[in-house]
Amino acid sequence: MNSLFIGFLLLSILVALGKLLIGDVEALGTLVQAMFSAADLAVEVSLGLIGVLTLWSGFFALAQRSGMAERLSHRLTPILLRLMPDLSTNRAALGPVTLNLSANMLGLDNAATPLGLKAMEAMQESNPDKGTATNSQIMFLVLNTSSVTLLPITVFMYRAQQGAADPASIYAPMLMATTASTFVGIWLTARIQGISLRNPVILTIAGLWLCLLGLLAWAVTAMPASSAAALSSGLGNGLLLITVAAFLLAGWRANIDVYQTFIDGAKEGFGTAVKLIPYLVAMLVAIAMLRAAGALDLLLDGIRHAVRWLGLDGRFVDALPVAFLKPLTGSGSRAMMLEVMQTHGVDSLAGRMAAVMQGSTETTFYVLAVYFGSVGITNLRYALLCGLAADAAGLIVAVLATYLFFG
Fold first, then answer.
1. How far is the C-alpha of 207 from the C-alpha of 203, rounded, in Å?
2. Pick from 179, 184, 174: nearest CA to 239
3. Would you tell me how many other CB atoms lie within 10 Å of the CB of residue 156?
4. Closest CA relative to residue 162, chosen from 343, 321, 40
5. Of the four listed, 58, 120, 305, 373, which is most buried by Cβ atoms within 10 Å?
């Protein structure tokens, strides 16, 4: 992250100086103006998120206090033991592993990371070689980097803040993209580890899920683009409302004070929105300066010409910066998604594709550094390969699925 930030800023300044030397006297002024404008935009975006973040932090507090996330984790245990057989002799790690994945599925980002660190520590206790990642640790990391989120609230929030007509309209293509990422990550990791996926439980779950997505894709190809967007919107909005109802009912059944729990959780959302400001300022300024200097446009124009030479639709190129940054930095890819939305429009093809890319995978290098670094693992073995393969699958399907629904 440090190298990216320094590199983006210095490259922008060098390109602007180069333009000045060839006669573009406005190059430096344009760069400075972009820097100040991006800083203002970062604050505006962060403050605009306060309401929505506060709302969902309150709802997620209900999921945690009511035990809803923990109950979901118990249902995941049978399949996880088949994907990570080493955990059968380390039951202490099974709890935090399942809770972490459950939190990811529900979009509980704040809870997922500390639970993931606890899971990694618990798995490390039975690791015979403390500096080398075990098979279970690698599979766990791939499940995190491939993004198993079924409720991408964060991306919906950013689209709402940017003025999207229907923030949840991208739900179906995002679901296809994150499924591709997760399936490819699991398949490649299991193949390397020699784990057979020809298990009745795994095959049944995977088969039913793929059939559901296949039916969705078939239905979309048989209807006009406006109807496809409406179908995706109905799925996304319907799931959101069902989830809210489930949170409320879970709190009521657990006999907790639903209102007070919601208020306590909502207070955390306000703090989260404020904490985002410096991170967004740093990355939005760096990216805005890259674009203002012309460095980013040079790269994208080169790719666009190559794509058109091949006779392909080049509109997806405008969203590619999100794909470039996603494996490296979550804050950087988020800032780039916002920049694409600002430049091309939140409901443009590029704006929607950038959002789908953002929700399709997690930040592989960040997860590797945090999870493995927290327990002192330096030998990653094939973890990076599997994580990047999952990223590539998710990002490719993000492009194709966005064209399918909105092209």
1. 6
2. 174
3. 26
4. 343
5. 120
